[in-house]
Amino acid sequence: MRLFVFSVVLILMFIPARADSPLTSTDFYKAYEASPQVTAALQSKGVLTKDIMKFLNSKKNSIALKMAVINAVGWSFDGHNNYTLYKNYLGSKMGTGELKAANLLCLAYLKALDNYFDCNEALKIADEALSLNPNSYTFNIIHGLIKAQVLFDSSWCDLWKSTDAVRKNENLKKDMNDEAIRIIFEYMDLYQSECDN
């Protein structure tokens, strides 16, 4: 009996909790904590406010800070409805050019965090956003995190590669701060050993 209990405990120790995943364990908002918008997002109790949505829809604000704000709003085991809130807020006014791309990336990241158990639709939206701004580090890394989440149940090696490819791409415009990148890879690099097998 003791051997059975020990075996079960050992197995559970090596199976990551579902909350321990690319989208839920990369709190890169911490690199932007000095921002009042990130502070407001942390105080929002997981729900987008009008002020946060207005911030996300402004072309004056950097895409990295917008992603940090969404990251700070966070996720919940029970899910959120922030994708729908923001989509309704935008209505038919997605913007054009860079603003349209940014809004699509916001929607993709919100959709992924609303229900991180199923990120396939979020990945499709992220694909579209990335096609509009393929040279942005932030667009690529958020796309990579969503893709990694999709791969979570199938291939941890491919999961790691989805963001490592972004890190290795020296042609990208680095529009995210170094500390945010460090936070992301501090978690993502835990999967690197899966490629050694």
Kindly state the mean pLDDT as a whole number?
A: 89
Described by the principal axes of the CA atoms, the overall outline is globular
Number of strands: 0
The succession of helices and strands, N to C, reads HHHHHHHHHH
Sheet of most strands: none
Distance between the termini: 32 Å
The helicity comes to 55-70%
Instruction: Please give the count of helices.
Output: 10
Strand content range: under 5%
Structural class: mainly alpha
Which spans have pLDDT < 50 for at least 5 consecutive residues? 3-19
Q: Roughly how many Å is the radius of gyration? A: 17 Å
What number of structural domains do the residues give?
1
Q: How does this model look, in words?
A:
Residues 3-19 have low confidence and may be disordered. The relative contact order is 0.13. The longest helix is centred in the middle third of the chain and has 18 residues, at 97-114. The two termini are 32 Å apart. The protein is 59% helix and 0% strand. It has one domain. It has 197 residues and is mainly α. The chain has ten helices and no strands.
Can I get a quick summary?
This protein is mainly α and 197 residues long. It is built from ten helices and no strands.
Topology:
Blueprint: H1 2-14, H2 36-42, H3 50-56, H4 63-73, H5 82-90, H6 97-114, H7 120-132, H8 137-151, H9 156-168, H10 178-188
What features would you highlight for this structure?
single chain; 197 residues; mainly alpha; 59% helix; 0% strand; globular; disordered N terminus
